[in-house]
Each structure stands twice: as C-alpha cells, then as structure tokens.
Amino acid sequence: MVILEKNKNDTSSIIDLLRALAAQAVCVGHAIMFFRSDLMPSSLPLMQNVGVLVFFVLSGFLIAYTLQRKAADPDYGFFRYALERFARIYSGLVPSLAFVMLCDAIIGQRDSFLSLLANLLMNEGYRGIFPNALPREPFGSAHQLWTLAIEWHIYLSVGAAFFLFLRRGRMAILVLILLFYGQTSSHYLWGAYQADGVGRGLFSLWLGGAATYLLISRLHIGREAALLLALAAFSILLVQTHRGEEYSFLVYALLLVAFVGLVSWSQRTNGISKVASERIRFFADYSLTLYLTHHSLMVLMKAFQPEAGAMGLVVAVIASNLAAICLAEIGEKQHRRILAILLAR
Known about the structure:
Layout: H1 11-35, H2 47-70, H3 78-106, H4 113-120, H5 145-166, H6 171-187, H7 202-218, H8 223-240, H9 249-266, H10 274-284, H11 287-304, H12 309-330, H13 335-344
Helix pairs in contact: 1-2, 1-10, 1-11, 1-12, 2-5, 2-7, 3-5, 3-11, 3-13, 5-6, 7-9, 8-9, 11-12
C-alpha cells in the first residue's frame, strides 16, 4: 500500500517537489528559448519537455491513488470525481486565461471568442470524429495549453471507464462520456500532437504513471536499492536523450523506472522536516498557474525587449513566478473552496 501522509514518510513532499520542479523546468526552459537560445545544448533533452512528461507521470500516479482510495466509499461515483477534477483544473485555468488575454492585448494580439470557447471546453488537444467543430489551437500565446486539454480528456475517459467497471452511476451517461473523451485519449496512446512527434504517446505515459502506483503498492525495494535505481535510470535518460527526442517510449520507460525508484525510496524515509515540507508545498501550490501563464508573459517581454539576453532570462523567470504566486491566490489555491461550493448545490 502506498502511504501519502506527511507524518509517516517523505512521499507526499517528494511528489510536491516533483510538481514544483516540473513547473520550474518548463518555465526556465522556455525562458532560455526566448532569451538565450544558445544555452540549449543539443546533447541534452529540453527541460521544458521533460517537465511536461513528469506532470503526466504524476497525474497518472495520483489519479490511480485517488480512485483506489476513494472507491472504498460506495457513495463515491463519477459525479464527485468529475467535480473534483473540474475544481482543481478550472480554478487555475480561468484566471490564467484572463491573464493570457491581458498579455496578448498589450502587444495588440487579438484572441478570438471561438478560440477562447474551445480552450474553455478543452478542445485544443482534441483528436476525434468532430475535428472541425471548434478551433483546436491553444488560446492566444498560451501554446502549452494543449497538454492540459489532453489531461482533461484522460481524466474523464479513465473516470468513466473506472465507474462503468464498478457499475456506479448511469450507464448511458458514462458510456457517452467514455465514447467522446476516449477519442482523444485513444489517439495519444501512440499518436502525437504534431507531425514531428511532439506529444506522442502521452496517454501511454499517463497509464504508466498509474501502473507505477499499483506496482509500488505490491513491490518491496530496499531503501538504498530504490534510490540507486532512481539515480541510474534518470542518469541514463539524460545521457541517452538528445534535444528533440524527449517524446519517445524509451524515455518514458526510463522516467517511469526512475519514478518507481524515487517513490519507493521516499516510502521508507522520513527525513524532510516540517519547515522544508511547507516550503516545498508553497512552490507546488502555484505550479499549475505558473505552467499556464509563463509563456504569455515571456511573449510580452520579448515583444518589448527582444535582445534582453541573460538579464531578460532571469527577469522572465522571476516575473513569471511572482505573477503565478499572485494569480494562484485567487485561483488555483481556492480549488477546495470551489469544490465545496459545487457540492453544496
């Protein structure tokens, strides 16, 4: 059994740390791309792409944990599950889209209403039988939104399949949800977001993250062996992966092995202090907002200071974090209160 209680082991804090580091990797990676592209070595994977992969592994792991733990309650069904996912995602998405609109307006970029609607409906990563129903591009300058849409389709299709199996809820509604949202999820079992392979197999990676939860629940690896496994797998990933090769199944396999080792190690350690845990949680608590907003802020900065160089890189990272911290206070950090309001209706 995987235990995620902070007072019993370090796993919860390690997962928070991975969330925070993944968001920072995406932010810093894009800042380098905008202001010092010469710093991107061809012999190493792009950190922003690795950050995206880590998010998908964590998502699969945590959803598997949530479904197994909460399904023990016979009253827990798809409706409650979907509301939890909605509150978690949309609490960060809505303020972030408003921020994107502001950044784009300052540089004179007009974002269409249909594009806004498509992104609110999580259509920008859609792959299915209605390809022309709404625009499929990310909203405005927020190019990274396509990954959030894929996760949303995965959440609903996996949730519908899970509760169909448990026979909780109206079968007809769950089947319709599975048929619609399963189209995009099925595409990303092997298919890509772009012709060059970007995004290939992200649902497979997500399922791998879910499988790691089941594996760690049943597998006993000694503390030292687990840490060695994590370090070895991630080191091989860094050495073997060049720029542009991040979306490959070999990388996914290495990342999953590293994750199994790291979580297995953290299940058997309890050395992160309460103060350190709280500081890690601070950075993790605005990770979604940082992910959703940083690119638009950097587009804005680049428009006014195209040759900012190293100073622009540093300022962009700091400004992106400060903006995300402020936005998260009215958005992402309110997801539990939003869920309580939705459940009370």
